[in-house]
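dude i think i finally got it to work??
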Amino acid sequence: MEQVIELLANPNWSLIALGRHGNLFRRRITVNSAAEAPLNIDDIQIKSGYMAAITRISVENETSDYDRLRIGVVSANTFYPLEEDQNPNAITLYWTSADFYLGEGENLRLELTGTTAADRICVYIEGYTARVIS
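look at this
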């Protein structure tokens, strides 16, 4: 599996004007899959001293239909699925219905079941990070 992450984080995008402190980001992860069951696509782990709010996740298999899409959080090496779609269609954008919150050391995971070799998967993630104040 080849995974490419494009970071569009910009420290100049700030939420201070919205009454929150943090940095907005947008990322696109592109994966050319191998025949895996399931195919796990992991986002970047939240670094120590920070938390993240993920406000939008969308995913599209540009190549073929597949069996199941689960989106959730990996914490302490355990996957906690938070949303699921059954029988997603190819060339159709699927997205989350709620915000996700991640603490330090956690990461976002998309679990796709039923993909085939050479499927092209695109994941789009938007949100913000903030320093944890103790």
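Residues 2-131 form a domain with the Jelly Rolls fold (CATH 2.60.120.260).
im so relieved honestly
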